[in-house]
Specification:
Blueprint: H1 3-11, E1 15-20, E2 26-31, E3 39-43, H2 48-54, H3 56-65, E4 69-73, H4 76-85, H5 100-113, H6 118-129, H7 133-139, H8 158-173, E5 180-184, H9 190-199, E6 202-207, H10 210-222, E7 229-233, E8 243-249, H11 260-270, E9 271-284, H12 293-299, H13 308-315, E10 321-328, H14 331-345, H15 347-353, H16 356-374, E11 378-386, H17 397-405
Parallel strand pairs: 1-3, 5-6, 5-8, 6-7, 8-9
Antiparallel strand pairs: 1-2, 3-4, 9-11, 10-11
Helix pairs in contact: 1-2, 2-3, 3-16, 4-16, 8-17, 11-13, 14-16
């Protein structure tokens, strides 16, 4: 029995998987399950099975990107979902390992890339966020919120869920007019502009993406609030001043574990004595781990999604008090479903911007991330911090009351 046969036989237990080899032979794996869509794939050349089996996390993606793995029934979302549902995190079943040599190499790459000094941080950000501006318009909401949305129900549309996310975060910041707010990793400016509009605060947004900076400044000018909502191209480590509130949405994933304590020490230094901080980040359930090889190589070099224990432990030396924690368990999977649908609908436009290979890479990225939130060990954490234990009301009622009043 080949390495791939052993791998596939171990992997596919639930749902139906058909693999058509290069010589036309069809092999069937798994058992029918009405909740799981059947998938059929074809290997274009004889070398694909061994190639994938040596390093499944990376090589399956590359075979799909290069057109060596073709999906004939279903799509890449169905394929990745079928793989992931056979190894749900809650069940503790590991389905994708690869050879020892590739495992060691992937772990070494992850460790090296986690050292995000300032120059590397800027190049890592540019790799992903300085892509063609049109790409993000094609699959994000109108406000370009490129982070987990907040769904109040399963049928809520993307724009509404992203608006609700901003209100959900604003309520946790406990804002008052005239306060000074720092937005670390401000993206295209949507959160900063919303906080100013909803609560009458002054906001400084910082980013390492030159393309995002241009858009954010343009949006502030168009809204007539450039005097109150400002954006700068600066690393958080180089920033000086004091802020009543700090918000960081979808940026902590790029900090790197060796810099966690530096990040929280700097945030404490920037926060006023009675300040409040809200950290919104992708995280991992359970113990610390590593970033998969595909994501490091093609999507987020230097990226890492932390365990809750890593975040809290890193903030303790800075004497940052954890005042509230919320785990969004399914919200990012729901967000990614909508991003994936929009990406597929915009296929021709994305291929025109780049090429077929890029489109396949992007759909694999979205499908893989979606499945990790639905079946794997990923979630989203919202962690509220204070410097002074007396800063906020002693119950959480203020969050709910404020969120209901905030504009969308």
């Amino acid at each position: 029995m080949s390495l791939f046969d052993r791998f596939a036989g171990h992997l596919f237990k639930r749902g139906e998987m058909t693999i058509i080899l290069a010589d036309g032979e069809a092999r069937h794996y798994g058992t029918p399950d009405p909740a799981i869509k059947p998938v059929t794939i074809r290997f274009i050349d004889r070398g694909v099975p061994a190639f994938i089996a040596r390093n499944p996390h990376l090589h399956a993606a590359e075979a799909f990107m290069e057109g060596r793995l073709v999906i004939e029934q279903g799509d890449i979302r169905d394929l990745v979902d079928l793989v992931r549902v056979n190894g749900r995190w809650e069940e503790g079943r590991i389905t994708l390992r690869g050879t020892f040599r590739h495992l060691v190499r992937d772990r070494l790459r992850a460790a090296i890339q986690s050292v995000n000094w300032a120059t590397r941080s800027k190049s890592n950000v540019a790799h992903h966020y300085d892509l063609n501006d049109r790409l993000y318009d094609l699959f994000l909401d109108a406000d370009r919120q490129y982070s987990c949305a907040y769904f109040t129900g399963p049928d809520v549309d993307l724009d509404t869920a992203q608006a609700d996310k901003k209100a959900h975060i604003a309520a946790k910041l406990h804002l008052s007019p005239g306060q000074r707010v720092l937005d670390i990793g401000c993206g295209w400016g949507g959160m900063a502009l919303y906080l100013n509009r909803a609560a009458g605060v002054d906001v400084l947004g910082i980013t390492l993406s030159e393309e995002q900076l241009k858009v954010a400044r343009r949006r502030a000018a168009e809204a007539g609030v450039s005097d109150r909502v400002k954006f700068e191209l600066i690393d958080y480590r180089a920033l000086e001043g004091k802020f009543d509130r700090i918000v960081s949405v979808g940026m902590f994933e790029h900090v790197g574990v060796p810099q966690y304590e530096t990040f929280f020490a700097k945030c404490r230094d920037l926060l006023t004595e009675d300040g409040v901080m809200l950290l919104h980040t992708i995280g991992r359930l359970g113990v610390p781990g590593k970033t998969d090889a595909f994501t490091l190589k093609y999507i987020f070099p230097g990226g890492y999604n932390p365990a809750l224990s890593e975040i809290v432990a890193a903030s303790e030396p800075a004497r940052m008090i954890v005042s509230d924690v919320e785990t969004l368990r399914l919200h990012y999977g729901m967000t990614l479903d909508r991003w994936y649908d929009r990406t597929v609908a915009a296929r021709d436009a994305i291929v025109a911007l780049y090429d077929e290979r890029f489109y396949r890479m992007w759909t694999f990225y979205l499908a893989g991330a979606r499945a990790a939130f639905y079946h794997g060990n990923l979630c989203n954490y919202q962690i509220q911090y204070v410097r002074n234990r007396r800063t906020l009301p002693i119950t959480r009622d203020y969050m709910i009351d404020t969120e209901r009043r905030l504009p969308r």
